[in-house]
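User: Assemble these into one structure.

Assistant: Restating your components, then the assembled model:
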Amino acid sequence: MQLQLSAEDEKFRDEMRTFFTTEVSQEIRTTVAEGRELTKEQIVESQQTLNKAGLAVPHWPEEYGGRGWSDLQRHIWNEEMQAACVPIPLAFNASMIGPVIAQFGSQEQKDEFLPKTANLDIWWSQGFSEPDAGSDLAGLRTTAVKDGDDYIVNGQKTWTTLGQYGDWIFTLVRTDPEVKKQAGISMLLIDMRSEGLEVRPIELIDGGHEVNEVWFTDVRVPAKNLVGEENSGWTQAKFLLGNERVGVAPVGSTKRVLARAKELGAELVKDDPLLRARIIELENELLALELTALRVVAHSEGGEPHPASSVLKLKGTELQQAVSELVVDLGGPDTLASGEEGDTESWYRRSTPTYLNLRKASIYGGSNEVQRQIISRTILGL
Amino acid sequence: MDFTYDDEQDALRDAVRGLIGKAYGDYEKRRQTTKEDPGFDEKVWTQLAEMGLLGLPFSEEDGGVGAGPVEIGIVCQELGRVIAPEPYLSSVVLAGGLVSAVGTPEQRQEILGALSAGESVLAFAHAEPGARWSDSASAVTASQDGDSWTVSGTKDPVLHGARADVLVVSAALPDGGTGLFVVQGADAQAEGFSTYDGGRAARVTFDATAATPLGTAGADVTASIAIVHDITRIMAANQSLGAMETLLAQTTDYLKSRKQFGVTLNTFQALTFRAADMYTSQELTHSLVDWATMVVAAGKPEEVADAAARVGLQVSRGGRHIGQEAIQLHGGIGMTAEYSVGMYTAHLTALDHLLGDAGRHLKVLDATLEEHGVIDPLDRS
């Protein structure tokens, strides 16, 4: 048991901190700090800055840009990035399809996609959920039928986040309707400019356009875009969803928002014991969460994940939501006002859309009910 | 940064678990032991001494082992796991900790030597009715006559005060501040009683009772009391964690075996989800307990005070959550004295109120809220 970082990790942390606070565009970092929406161009620019320095996909195999870091180093990288208001690399590329192609893809797919995926030259979208396949993902119904060297895809995907920016979409499709539902699924990579593919926006409760429906009508997809074997898609889906041990809980960004809430709300907080107690409780729970993440990364070197990793998503999203709720309450009636005068006013004005938007956090990536199911079944054996 | 035990620490945990698990692994043994005075098993106390555990925190010159807070935390977790009634926390960690922090070399050797050998039980007579977790004394006062000192007033509750061979007594000094004194147990008037968790405490009255200053006569040692209180809070948190882990394990076992409506209770998601939330509370608590214990090892008093309040807040919240849910998920059986979970919850409640509950810890943390932007758990000495 030892609290301090090793000299090597301390040095690593300093290097990360220096890079993130000096090399990434100040304008992008300010946008994040103020909780404003990033443009597509800003997200791309930020990831390309990271990629140029070898900091976009450190967890990938080394031949495709990975760095061979320890889980603790990846944790430090992730936390320092969030603390510095640097947008984390696009999850669809860096955390989802990249590792899947590296693990299961053909050599041709690796060569074709991985460099562009790391550099965000290709913007990937996720085509997993369907109107009738949410938490029960294996119930998906979009079909892919072999026709010569192609598959013909028909069906509908939904909740495709930032699909309006997507160049390619990785999908789970049903290639065998006759077998047990998990056994008839394949993963197909589909060019979003294909004929018969249509992206339709879904307006959300925050008034924004973040997610989409993606419709497929006789979309022709070359069979070489199949990842792994036909009907092995469930294996890849499980790998993709269970791949992550680092950065599962959004600790760094939530800490940052809470610190800003304290700063901008200082006058109000100063004399209000109820608000103060609420902030202290949140800070303490975030500390417990961060330490749990550290326990997990310090433990999981190479072996099975630490069982406590299962609480990270559950608690991390709850705290992310609770902090956003605090900000709305600090704003009070100012959240309804029209002013954009100062930092504080405009921040409060954006706080309710953010709060509403973050309700998604306990729904996506395996809803928190799914997380409780995992804990009670897998960890507690219930 | 490392959250794992080394081989020696693993061996220590296994040894303590072996000894104490044998004594109290069967809850009925704990129940029977706490029915009779002194409320713990003298043989087990002797075995703890023989294993070197009673001298664990003290230097070798003082008759101890010179182990660190991680080792003491391991012992406390294992004691908590079976809610062993032996006065480890109150006698070794708290009273012994004060002698170690404040006593003269001669006092340390004599008192801690006897404590480490299992020959003497110590108690810290400090709490005063209504004083609510103060680091100083006020109702009990010290008087000086030449080189002689006496103390007068009432302390209540004094954990294991009736059984104690030696009392470490805090008293308001004639010139202000709080001093510590050594009083022989036989010289004080102690009315012992059972606490609601099967423990023992006493109301101890001093009436111009002869007292020997611990350390420098007349010195204000409030700061030392505060530090030892904080370390004790963190060790109490270790003990609470052990109890919480048992509560959750008992509850999951029960959900798997108890049948209603022809099926085991784990068939009902309303119940398993609540068990999952208990696990979340347990793991968050575990993380803070490990961290706070390491902060003690790093040794800066102001950081230890902060860590004690942070872990205390989490333990208070988590302990209540897990204790209350353990009883609820057991149903009626959880309400009975014969079954363990109710007593575990009572013990967690006692530990929660021993040196400060969530309210106290919030107040401590309130004072420093503006001193940091974000909290960096690794940015400690």
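Chain B touches chain A through 48 residues (CB under 8 Å).
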